[in-house]
C-alpha cells in the first residue's frame, strides 16, 4: 500500500501525513508479519514495545553514525505507530504534524531515552499493580516519541511514509507468505 504525503508550504519541511492510512497500514503489517506479538496480551505487547524503545535509545549511545541514526529513528517511528494502535489512539486527532522545534539529533536521542525510561517505568508499575495511571503515562510517552520522530524527520528532510515503507520491506520479504496474503 502506497502512503500519501502532502507537502505543506511553511519555512519548515513539514509534510502532512495521512495518519489514518499510516495506522491502518501498520496494523495490517503487524497482523501479517508479527503474529507472535499481535497475539500477546495488551500488557505484554506494550512491554515489548517499551523494550524496543529502550533498545533503540541504547543503540544511539553505542553508534550514532548516519546510517544507524536513520534506522533507529525510522524503527522508533514504526514502533510508536504500532504502540498507538495497541492503545487504540486515533492519531488523526493528536495534532502531530510539525509538533515542535526541538529537532536536533541530540534532542531526539535524549527525548527517546527519557520517554523509553518512563514507559518502562509504567510497565514495571503495572507488573506490581501499583496505584498508577498506566494508560495515561504510556500514551503520553508513545506520543512523545512520535513527536520526536516527526521533528527529526522534518529537520532531516526525510519523508515519513516513504522511509517507513523502505524499512519494513526487508521484514516483509523474510516471510514465506509475502506477496501471497
Question: Can you put this structure into words, describing what you see?
Answer:
- The chain is mainly α and 181 residues long.
- It has one domain.
- A hairpin with a 7-residue loop joins strand 1 and strand 2.
- 29% of the residues are buried.
Give the tags:
single chain; 181 residues; two-stranded antiparallel ribbon; 2 strands; globular
Brief account:
The protein is mainly α.
**Rg (C-alpha, Å):** 16 Å
* β-strand number: 2
Uncertain ranges: 1-12
Q: Which geometry do the CA atoms define?
A: globular
Helix content: 55-70%
What portion of residues belong to β-strands?
under 5%
Compute the number of structural domains: 1
Structural class: mainly alpha
Strand order of the largest sheet: 1-2
Order of helices and strands: EEHHHHHHH
End-to-end Cα distance, whole Å, is 13 Å
Main sheet overview? 2 strands, antiparallel
Amino acid at each position: 500500500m502506497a502512503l500519501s504525503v502532502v507537502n505543506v508550504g511553511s519555512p519548515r519541511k513539514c509534510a502532512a501525513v495521512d495518519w489514518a492510512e499510516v495506522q491502518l497500514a501498520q496494523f495490517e503489517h503487524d497482523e501479517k508479519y508479527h503474529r507472535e506479538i499481535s497475539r500477546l496480551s495488551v500488557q505484554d505487547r506494550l512491554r515489548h514495545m517499551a523494550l524496543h524503545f529502550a533498545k533503540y535509545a541504547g543503540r544511539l549511545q553505542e553508534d550514532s553514525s548516519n546510517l544507524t541514526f536513520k534506522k533507529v529513528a525510522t524503527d522508533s517511528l514504526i514502533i510508536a505507530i504500532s504502540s498507538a494502535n495497541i492503545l487504540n489512539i486515533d492519531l488523526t486527532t493528536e495534532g502531530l504534524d510539525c509538533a515542535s522545534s526541538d529537532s536536533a539529533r541530540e534532542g531526539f536521542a535524549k527525548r527517546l531515552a527519557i520517554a523509553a525510561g518512563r514507559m518502562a517505568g509504567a510497565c514495571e508499575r503495572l507488573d506490581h499493580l501499583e496505584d498508577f495511571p498506566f494508560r495515561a503515562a504510556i500514551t503520553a510517552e508513545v506520543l512523545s516519541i512520535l513527536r520526536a520522530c516527526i521533528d527529526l524527520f522534518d529537520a532531516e528532510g526525510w519523508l515519513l511514509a516513504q522511509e517507513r515503507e523502505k524499512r519494513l520491506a526487508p521484514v516483509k520479504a523474510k516471510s514465506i507468505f509475502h506477496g501471497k496474503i
